[in-house]
Amino acid sequence: MANKTRPGEDLLIVDDLMLLLMDDDGASIQGAGTLHYTLGGALLTELALLGRVETDDSGIVNGPKVFPVGDGPLPDPLLQSAFDTVSEKTQRVQPLLLALGGGLWRVVRDRLVDRGLLRREDRRTLGVFRSTRWPAADEQHEAQLRARIRRVLEDNEAPDPRTAAIIGLLFASGAMPSLRPPLPWTTQTVQRASELQRGEWGPEAVGTAVARTAAGIAASSAAVAITVANTVR
Model's pTM, two decimal places? Predict the structure, then answer.
């Protein structure tokens, strides 16, 4: 029998984002209105960090064009599927986020269940009404992730590219002040998160062309999510 992946092992940025956006009781997801943009942006950013996508300098509307780079299999089926979508035709960030992120939350949720981080909990109210929740099954990984985020936001610790991307996309989703359990939401942390959302990851985090590309994609994805969120309010 194959060994089951340990909780928290080999998670993608998109997995960590989903964990943070899920309420602690598993009943709802914060930032649901822009979830497809947020999660799609996470996949694109991860591909950029792996050096498998690049962008050009064109396009204020709908963001820059995204191009596939390199060949060979990717280490995760979600990343491989996303790369295949990028490779099908050249698109700008906004339509590409829709192509990548539509319905993605269900796939990511089920991945987290398979990895032992969430569990499915079916309920029946008054013996008639059925509901399903997805509460945490193992809280250690998320606790470590939240501690890392707090150090960046509150202590001004220089973020690694992955943490910077998570904070930037999370802030752009509009869900940070309503997360359960909460993350710090003060003038200082809002300013810091806003900087990361704009792709200002700092010289230590963005020391290579690959990381700069990832920062640019995360910032573009975040800008799309913010624009859409403001439109639907």
Answer: 0.88
